[in-house]
Amino acid sequence: MTVADDEMTAHVVAEVVEGAMTGAVDKTTLKNGVRIVSRRIDHVRSVSMGVWVDAGARDEAVMEGGLSHFIEHMLFKGTEKRSSYDIAKAFDAIGGQTNAFTSMENTCYHARVMDEHLGTMADLLSDIFLNSTFSEDEVENERPVILSEIGMVEDNPEDYIHTLLEERFWGDHALGRSILGTREQIQGYGRDDLVRFFSHLYQPDRILISCAGHVDHDEILSLLAPAFEGIKARDGFPKRDVPTPSSGVKVLSRDIEQTHVSLAWPGLPVTHEMRFASSLMNTILGGNMSSRLFQEIREKRGLAYNVYSFTASYVDTGMVGLYAGVTPDKVEECLEVTKAELERLCEHGVDEETLAEAKAFTKGNILLASESVDSQMARLASSEFHFGRQIPMDEVVAQIEAVTTEEVRKVAEMAFTQKPAVGVLGLDPSEEKIRNVFGI
Predict the structure, then answer these.
(1) Catalytic (active-site) positions
(2) What sequence ranges are listed for the domain Peptidase M16 N-terminal (predicted)?
(3) Nearest 5°: phi and psi at 254?
(4) What CATH fold (topology level) applies to the domain 6-228?
(5) CA 260 from chain center: how many Å?
(6) Residue 4: pLDDT above 50?
(7) pTM for the structure as a whole
């Protein structure tokens, strides 16, 4: 948009995983494969819960574009016992916050409430996830909402440039298609398409419920296990094909004041052993206000108001990217400065002081995020999906501290010595000049 009792031991397998800093993590796997993971945090009064599916837009076939996201909307549109208004009113009545999101590899339905309302939250999330009716009337009502969302992205150049970049970088692979789907696809889907896709992808062994806050694991099991253990396994989950990134330039001329430019190079999968070096490299290059690109392009030269670097990691691949919004006559200069900074990073790397500052920045962000029950809930899910275990915070900090200046230079060289993919959105941008800067 967005039973713990003696009988429980007969149909679940439970294990307790040692946590760090915020208490132990409890994990239970139901007989059908649904996993329930929780972390108790005694010093808070709130509880965050997410019902996750290890499936997203990259698991759609070509003719299924946007179905994951459409389903995300529909699960709030009514169940067998609640209308969409009833669902909204029930969350508002307990002061709860609820939403959902669809990414390339996951879909999540989540909420946060005070601990005294845990039972209501669990009942609501269980109901929308398991009992949504996908009524024809609600499908028709929601269709224009999603079409408006597509238009909203296209109207925002800083959002839309990333769509263009991903199309150029990932090509025909599902990662290169919009999570929202196309207008034509959304117009064509009916209730049967949504139900079929839901049944195919929402497999029990790909469902994970994560919960963090002032909560007891046995209580969570008593609330959730009876409902979720009834989900039946269905046909096999579609195989995820590994994409092959490509270089090149994709230009879309649009009469707007700024020219928006985004570049991408191959990056690392989410579990790669060099992932911390890549994260630190990104911070140094364009991840904060003291980063090289921000200082050189915005602060020293005034070429752009907004400039940054980013990474996107998936289970089997990744992307390193840059973005800048500049006036049309400054595009070439901005790219030349960017290229010089990339070459400097690849050839000379970083000094120990710069790396130490990036480490402090990264650790600070991680530790500050850990104070949020929503962040803890999401971290539980991410660790379980990607590593099959909970990574203690002190282990994460140790891995950050262990990164060397040479590793930072190496991950930069792995990416930036290759030719980039470039997306450009603006008034009459010169594709030839862009190609010349990077020798594409």
Answers:
(1) 72
(2) 36-182
(3) -150, 135
(4) Cytochrome Bc1 Complex; Chain A, domain 1 (3.30.830)
(5) 23
(6) no
(7) 0.91
